[in-house]
What does this fold into?
Amino acid sequence: MATDIGADRSSGDRGLLDSLPCGVISFDDSGRVLYANGTVHTMLGYTAGELEGGHVERLLTIAGRIFYQTHFFPLLRLHGRVREVFLLLRTKSGTELGALANATRTTRDGASVVDCVLVEVHERRKYEEELLRARQSADRANGELQAQARVLQQTLEQLREQAVELEMQAQQLQEQTAELEMQQEALQEVNDQLLSQRDELERARAVANEANQAKSQFLSTMSHELRTPLNAIGGYVQLMEMEVQGPITDDQRQSLDRIARSQRHLLRLVNDILDLARIEAGRVDYRMEAMDVESVVVSVVPMLEPQLAAADLTFEATIAPGLRARGDREKTQQILINLLTNAVKFTPPHGHVSVRAHHDEPAKQLLVDVHDTGIGIPAEQLASVFEPFVRVETGQTHRPEGTGLGLAISRDLARGMGGDLTARSEPGLGSTFTLRLPAA
Amino acid sequence: MDVLTRNNVKVAGRGTQPMLFAHGFGCDQNMWRFVAPAFAEDYRLVLFDYVGSGRSDLSAYDATRYATLDGYAEDVLDVCRALDLRDVVFVGHSVSAMVGVLAATREPERFAHLIMIGPSPRYINEAPEYVGGFERSDIEGLLDTMDRNYIGWANYLAPAIMANADRPELGQELAESFCSTDPVIARRFAEATFFADNRADLSKVRVPSLILQCSEDIIAPQSVGEYVHRALPASTLRLMQATGHCPQMSAPEETVALIREYLSSRDGD
It folds into this structure.
């Protein structure tokens, strides 16, 4: 016979149990409720005494009943007590109520009785829900973290591979660097050599300049020393030709004539050398002015006319009026005389010599062409005609007169005025020398 | 991993024919302590905990393997193989009744009898033809209750307690808590149990069986026991006076008597 925990108590005890803030309920092994205090009745919406005699599962939701059967009851049977188990209770009206249960299975009056204390867990449940949510989100986060960890692991492996590759590249770079350093050292050596060569060249140039000056000085001195006796030779030849010292025979006159020709040639040569020396030594003064090109050309033509006639050549000058150049008039005349003299010298009879001038506007230069229909200059010699003592190989048995210094002097003068002298030629058809001067 | 250690296998008894006890959801092999000793004289008793329950090796838990009852049936067969059990009397409570069905379907030659206490092949109603007793929302409510209990105040510190091997009084506390202290494992076991549908497996069973059906069992109602009896070939249904879902604990004498009666009537089969 099961005993009611409340039934065998005094009414005072029952009042005490009813006043507890927690539910107290007793049931037998079959689940029949023997006693429930007022708090349980109130908690679940029953009127006093309504629960007694019914089954304890009536107090539980269906989920609560499953949990009771699978967890609560086995614990009670195996261990005789249950501590702080959460149960979903069901009120009389069917709403859910969370409660924490503590129960003990004891024997009273020879029968097994379960005494159970129920505490509502509104607040506690709220915390538990938060705890649950935190736990669930922690689980999710953990899963995500694990996924990320796997990704990180993969990334790490890739990074390791890349690190190995980078190391290999670094190795290569080091080797290349070492090679570059060696090359740099070699370059440094080359550079040092070049620098010392430059210094050497610098010294050589200084020496060369000095030598050039010395040469010019020497030539100038020599020219004076040569000109004095040459003039003496010329003077005495003239005196003898004039028979001042007595009559001379025809043979003697012929000899004197040859001496005079040689004396003139030598004198011209000495004069040219002196000119060139002075130019190269920078001892020439240019009187620069704006010149009317036509008038300069016209001024030199009379000097050439006798030679043109003697050589049986025709001459033509085509100069547009008003062309003006900057230069030294005398030196320009000297250049033109030299060019025209050469043209006459190297043009066979019945040939033609012409002078043309035009303005090269983009270059801001005036160009004066001296053209002949002469023997021309082979291409391989064209570049060297401006060098001293170079004479064009004519193939003629008669070697024209000249010192071989005229073109060198002319080009130096042209350059000294800020211009230039160039040549072009077609062998057999003639040559063209072009004097360039700055436009005025 | 040694299966006997993994599943905390205990062997006892003086008989030769093995009697293998499989616990249900929410418990461990301790639930058999009022029943098993009664058979020690005549049988070789084999008790074990499923991986994830009781004192099994939690590190052997594989979430994929134990996502369905097939994994639990593998545990049963693993134990049978490890001990080379033949002619087994399989005693399964609650969900283990269906675990026994699955194991006996796979290796029928190992089993002599299946004793099913409170079996249900399907807990959720399949209207209109099948009444399991629960709606899906009821099971979700159970999972919610479990979440609260397994990680609630009472068991929140359980892992820490387990780590305190040098404090035996805490071990005693643990023995009084649920058989599985891992909320994830317990929840998965609940899902594997209550969402399972083994109705189609029943007809495949060739091993004879005894169904012990309690009165007023909310988890396995009488109609479900009758359904199992109809679907299982060579089955015997016995209605018990015991109420609730755990007659091996609430009415061990009646349970023992019915099993003994069934087995003796079957001697010589």
About this structure: The first strand of chain B starts at residue 10 and ends at 12. The interface with chain A takes residues 24-27, 30-31, 33-34, 94, 134, 138-142, 144-149, 151-154, 156, 175-178, 183-184, 194, 216, 218-219, 243-246, 249-250 of chain B (CB under 8 Å).
